[in-house]
Amino acid sequence: MKKLVIIGGDAAGMSAAGRAKRTLPDMEVTVLEKSEDVSYSACGMPYNIADPERDINDLVVRKAEVFREKQGINLLTGFRVDVIDPDTRIVSGVTLRGDAFSFPYDNLMIATGATAIRPDIPGADLPGVMPLKSLNDGRKIKAYIAEKRVRKVVILGMGYIGLEMCEALRDRDIEVEMIKPRPELLPWMERKLAGIVQEEVEANQVRLYPGRHVQQIIKKDGRMAVVCPEETHPADMVLLAMGVRPNSREAGAAGLELGPGGSIAVDKTLRTSVSSIFAAGDCSDAFHVVTGEKTWIPLALRANRSGWAAADNICGKATILEGVVGTAVFKVFDLEVAKTGLTVDEAREHGFDPVSVTIETRSRAHSHPGSSTIYAHLVGDKKTGRLLGAQLVGKEGAAHRINAVAVALHGQMSVKAFSDTDLSYAPPFGPTWDPLLVAANQLLKKR
After folding, report:
1. What is the phi/psi pair of residue 85, to 5°?
2. pLDDT value, residue 438
3. Is the pLDDT reported for residue 406 higher than 90?
């Protein structure tokens, strides 16, 4: 009986395990998950934390018992893999109880995800200094807020998670300050659009401190304090939202090739540099459809899709994943913020001759009630006319509009071809000329 061992039991890992058992029911599938949680909606944690009445376990999509009893998957929680031996095809480690274990495999899939970055500063390990990455992180944060009656939080970082959490905390009437070392909010975003997001955050009484380097976190007068050269920020809790890094240490130690950002390098079949080992999800890299080069963009859809593809290839069903374009969307208070493809700077770095345009228009027909301002930013290549990327910000209509550009990027459409697309129109949903078409027509004038 063929043995498949999967390290990691969240999106990519459980997607692969379920797919493999459906395809080859007789395959012996073992999943080793270091925590006690599998298959949960990590992206829903800020919204759950915003509501003190909701149980954090509502985010569990499928309990471990379901995988074991209904799908016949040998799912083992509390099993931390420390060593991968490609020569003997054995993985080994210890359980949460301290018991050693080892499992042989015919094929191995690594789905170890990513881990939150912790700053290397004094006090980063103090109680009340917490990241938000795993479901258990969410449990700890929610319990800490309730037990300590938290009234002020300092967030280190101003990325997706930091901005989503600042809204969640303000919903609970908790004072929020955000600190980051770089001088700009959302440095990847076109400056006008980033300014709109900053105005929205500050209008909700969140204080931003960009360009600050945290020296240490201390206990002071029974509270914590984040110490910067310019000032000290007292807090009841410190949230670490400084980004994530791929969990690839064991893979690297086993001699597997690593890619961008230290992620595990895989080909379009999700196979690593060792033929019997596959990797999927946030621990592995991907090909960028626009540039054709390797990239590391940890996002949920890619994790689930790559888990399926890896399982298909392990089971003998040839499957190719062409890659990603980096489509992402998040909500910050009343704004929808969306992006896909390349920024101007990224396009230039990859050898394109980028031109861009930013337009301001209405989310609905001018005569329809409820219309609001929407901003669209498009990037194209002056030499070839190819569409390269987009960003959207608005109170409505940004989140789903970005998908049209994502599809165009996967199809390698030109700006001209995109400007000719037959997009839908009705007054409650948009003007006759959709904001993306207005932007595309303006961008055509720059060729």
Report:
1. -115, 95
2. 97
3. yes
Distances (CA, A) of 322 to 28, 268, 290, 317: 29, 6, 11, 16
Q: What is the pLDDT of residue 105?
A: 98
Q: Which residues pair with 83 in a beta bridge?
A: 92
Please say whether the beta carbons of 253 and 247 come within 8 A.
Answer: no
Instruction: Please identify which of the residues 43, 228, 283, 315 carries the catalytic annotation.
Output: 43
Question: Distance between CA 196 and CA 340 in Å, rounded?
Answer: 18
Q: How confident is the model at residue 277 (pLDDT cuts 50, 70, 90)?
A: very high
What distance in Å separates the CA atoms of residue 359 and residue 372, rounded to the nearest whole number? 14
- CB-based contact 35:78 (threshold 8 Å): yes
The helix (run of H) or strand (run of E) holding residue 165 is helix 160-171
Tokens 């080069």: give the residue.
Answer: 293
Helices (H) and strands (E) in the chain, counts: 12, 25
Average pLDDT, the chain: 96
**Of 352, 376, 374, 378, whose CA–CA distance to 363 is shortest?**
374
| pLDDT of amino acid 222 | 81
Percent of the chain beyond pLDDT 90?
Answer: 96
43 is catalytic: yes
The C-alpha atoms of residue 52 and residue 30 are separated, in whole angstroms, by: 36
Pick from 42, 15, 214: which is nearest to 115 by CA?
42
Cα 177 to its chain centre, rounded Å, is: 23
Strand order in the sheet with 206-209: 129-131, 237-240, 152-156, 175-179, 206-209
Residues 325-346 have pLDDT tens digits of: 999 999 999 999 999 999 999 9
Report the distance separating Cα 4 and Cα 277, nearest Å.
10
Look at residue 331 in the predicted model and tell me its pLDDT.
96
* Residues ≥6 apart with Cβ < 8 Å to 173: none
